[in-house]
Design brief:
Blueprint (H helix, E strand, L loop, with lengths): L25 H11 L7 E2 L2 H9 L3 E2 L5 E3 L8 E2 L2 E3 L2 E3 L6 E4 L2 E4 L1 E3 L2 E3 L2 E2 L4 E3 L4 E2 L1 E3 L4 E9 L42 H9 L4 H15 L7 E3 L4 E13 L4 E3 L3 E7 L8 E2 L4 E7 L4 E2 L4 E7 L4 E3 L3 E7 L4 E3 L2 E7 L3 E3 L5 E7 L3 E3 L4 E6 L8 E3 L4 E2 L3 E5 L1 E3 L4 E2 L2 E2 L5 E2 L5 E5 L4 E5 L2 H5 L1 H13 L17 H20 L17 E3 L9 E5 L1 H25 L6 H11 L9 E4 L2 E4 H12 L6 H28 L10 H31 L1 H4 L5 H8 L6 H26 L1
Parallel strand pairs: 2-5, 3-6, 4-9, 5-10, 6-11, 9-12, 10-13, 11-14, 12-15, 13-15, 14-16, 15-17, 17-18, 17-19, 18-20, 19-21, 20-22, 21-23, 22-24, 23-25, 24-26, 25-27, 26-28, 27-29, 28-30, 29-31, 29-32, 31-34, 32-35, 33-36, 34-37, 35-38, 36-39, 40-42
Antiparallel strand pairs: 1-3, 7-8, 39-40, 41-42, 43-44
Length: 724
């Protein structure tokens, strides 16, 4: 502690960091103009009678000439407060501000204010120390121990200010504890940005450019003031330092908020609750952080939630995600992630969205190496079950569900929609490819429905793929079919005859290279899996092509053939697709973007985000062209794309859709027919009152409606084809 007689509130920016001819308020004035359209001439000095009223109300000011106000101004609404530095207050009238049942009058009471701008009709009461903040209109600030901004505040952005060294720059070590994939957080970061930065580490020029772009956009000049956006409420908080707060935010009972940006707006308000501690990061629009949650070195995407003591550390959490109770360290998590259990643990992983972690899941908590540099990469739909323990380094295809167990070794599972089981009795790894399609379509379809239904973003920077059948998963299926054909050949089995040499039906075959161990590995139901995969491809191809054709009424079939045939065929089908933050993109587009960034074409993150939108505009055609190639060229023998063949494929897709609807209904109905499910009820009537009927299940009704819409779409397409 230092003792000083120098008045606080002045010389906020050291002289050596001021531009020529500028004073310490130049950035503050620029912020005021940008945010509230106010200029220095909009305030006036106090009248003598106003000063007298203020002093009679036990207020003090180091220099009343530096206390400026706007009309109308009622000095009687300021009491028992101390002011230092340049103070500028907007209009102040005898009105009340109310948030829920909390209602207090506008004005300043029992507070110490240092060099701040305060908006119109704002209420500040019992705030021990507020320093260097621009506070918006109609805000409530109550019972805050410390609210201040330093001259070198970065507000959670991974930049440094003039005169600072690299050692103070804040990095986030995503995907790897050892820091080899470190990225810099910034205010408008989305998971696509984080993935580009963290995944392509061989592109050293790209990493360098991203650092330069972030530094240029968010670093440099000292002296920005903190912001409290209009209509925000902050009450009963301990320490808020170097923190930007957007409009209409609600912060109640937080312990510590330091070096962060809290994005919030009237349409997408953010709330932070009791016991929360957040340091060095970005909180997205419409986020909720409650009940003792902790976040350090982090980015939270739009409409995401931390609750019940969740810990988010060195991680990026994607949009529309909810994390409760658990611990998350060193991760890059794409949108639509669910993790709700106190004893679940996720570390050093890339989880590519539409994912769910069950209780007692410890993903990457154990290392099979001598250093903490392992990783886990899981594609869309990752679902480790109860008490699953996985080792670094492991890789999982899309929509992999992992049965309960302590998996002893690293795994590389290329089969999408598969069930992975650690059979301890037979001491072997078991893989059932296409499990979801064969046995749990209810969960698979519901995942896609939830993804669409839970996207509450008002502003959609990225367009996410919610369908479980898309170019990325279709390519995984094609690769898996090749794997299975090879394994059948190695086992001396025919690709068509499903019996072994003794005439017995083949229930499993041996496999290898999917687990880093010497124990047995087997593929369960290989022939059924191949049939399911082919059915999924056929459905994907016809459905996607029909949806595109239906959305383009200006096209006839001949036009469609020319448009799609020129883009893809069996020789040039796009096989490499990238899930970049939940958005599915041909890999060549990502490579083009990287090249353009390296050459200096894009100089801000906003410009890069506009490229993502261009990708989204191109995606329907990219996706359809891929499906077209699968439909006519890549299902074995190529077939010519004619109307008759296309109609047959549409009819087959409609049959598959009917099968899907029936299968989903039967999957749910099993729960109601299960005798153990009935055991807690005295009679069927009680069970029906508690659980309802299968027919009344909300999701079953959704599926029935979607099937009806699908049938109507197929009929429209057929009608247009007949007209051709």
């Amino acid at each position: 502690m230092k003792v000083s007689k120098v008045l606080p509130g002045y010389d906020f920016i050291p002289a050596e960091f001021l531009p020529p001819g500028a004073d310490e308020y130049w950035l503050r004035n620029a912020q005021q103009t940008e945010l509230f359209n106010k200029k220095t001439g909009d305030w006036r000095i106090l009248k003598p009678e106003e000063i007298e009223i203020l002093e009679n109300n036990r207020n003090s000011c180091a220099n009343w000439k530096d206390f400026l106000v706007c009309d109308p101004f009622d000095p009687a609404l300021i009491r028992d407060s101390c002011f230092y530095g340049l103070i500028r207050i907007g209009s102040l009238q005898n009105v009340f501000l109310k948030y829920h049942d909390f209602c207090i009058p506008a004005g300043i009471r029992g507070s110490t204010i240092v060099s701040c701008d305060i908006g119109n009709d704002t209420a500040i009461q019992n705030c021990a120390y507020i320093s260097h903040y621009i506070i918006g209109n109609n805000c409530i600030l109550s019972q805050i121990d410390e609210l201040q901004t330093t001259n070198h505040a970065k507000f959670g952005n991974g930049a440094i200010k003039d005169g600072e060294g690299e050692e103070v720059r804040v990095w986030i070590d995503v995907m790897n504890e050892a820091g080899g994939r470190s990225i810099l957080p910034f205010e408008n970061m989305i998971t696509a940005d984080a993935y580009l930065w963290a995944a392509y580490r061989d592109d050293t020029e790209l990493t360098k450019k991203f650092t330069e772009i972030t530094q240029k956009q968010y670093g440099g000049l000292r002296g920005n003031y903190g912001i409290i956006g209009s209509n925000s409420v902050i009450k009963s908080c301990s320490i808020i330092k170097d923190t930007m707060v957007g409009e209409s935010a609600y912060i109640k009972g937080a312990n510590k908020l330091k070096n962060i940006t809290i994005l919030s707006s009237a349409d997408e308000p953010t709330q932070i609750g009791e016991g929360v501690e957040m340091v060095n990061g970005i909180v997205g629009y419409a986020c909720n952080v409650f009940y003792g949650s902790k976040a350090v070195r982090f980015v939270m995407g739009r409409n995401s939630n931390l609750k019940y003591g969740a810990r988010l550390i060195h991680s990026v959490l994607g949009d529309n995600s909810t994390v409760s109770c658990c611990e998350i360290l060193n991760n890059l998590i794409f949108p639509f992630h669910e993790q709700h259990h106190n004893n679940s643990f996720l570390i050093a992983s890339l989880v590519q969205g539409m994912s769910n972690l069950a209780a007692a899941a410890t993903i990457g908590s154990n290392h099979n190496s001598r250093a903490n540099d392992g990783e886990i990469q899981a594609k869309r739909g990752f679902w480790p079950g109860l008490a699953v323990s996985l080792k670094h380094t492991s890789v999982f295809a899309s929509f992999a569900i992992i049965a309960k167990g302590d998996y002893p070794s690293e795994m590389n599972i290329p089969f999408p929609f598969s069930l992975i089981n650690n059979n301890v009795h037979k001491n072997r790894l078991e893989i059932l490819p296409a499990f979801f399609w064969m046995f749990n379509l209810y969960a698979l379809e519901r995942n896609s429905w939830k993804t669409k239904n839970r996207d509450k973003r008002k502003v959609k920077i990225q367009r996410f793929e919610s369908d479980y059948l898309a170019p990325d998963t279709a390519e995984e299926i094609i690769t898996s079919l090749s794997h299975l054909e090879k394994l059948l050949g190695e086992a001396g089995l025919s690709l068509t005859d499903k019996n072994d040499k003794d005439g017995n039906y083949v229930h499993f075959i041996s496999c290898h290279d999917f687990e880093h161990s010497k124990r047995d590995q087997v593929i369960i139901r290989p022939y059924e899996a191949m049939d399911s995969y082919r059915q999924m491809l056929r459905y994907y191809a016809a459905k996607t092509t029909a949806e595109y054709f239906d959305s383009r009424p200006e096209l006839n079939f001949s036009d469609l053939c020319k448009q799609l045939g020129n883009l893809h065929n069996s020789q040039n089908r796009i096989k490499d697709w990238v899930n970049i933050g939940g958005q599915i993109v041909p890999a060549f587009r990502v490579d083009e973007l990287r090249k353009d960034i390296n050459e200096g074409k894009y100089k801000t993150w906003d410009e890069i985000h506009r490229v993502y939108e261009q990708w989204a505009q191109a995606y329907p055609l990219d996706k359809c062209a891929h499906a077209w190639a699968v439909l006519f060229q890549d299902r074995g023998n190529p077939i010519p794309p004619d109307i008759l063949t296309f109609k047959k494929e549409l009819a087959a897709a409609l049959e598959i859709r009917t099968w899907i609807e029936t299968h989903i209904y039967e999957s749910r109905e099993k729960d109601f027919l299960n005798p153990f499910k009935k055991a807690t009820f005295r009679n069927p009537e009680e069970m029906e009152q508690v659980l309802g009927k299968t027919n009344n299940n909300p999701f079953i009704r959704v599926i029935q409606k979607e099937s009806l819409l699908f049938k109507e779409m197929i009929e429209r397409v057929k009608t247009r084809l007949t007209a051709n």
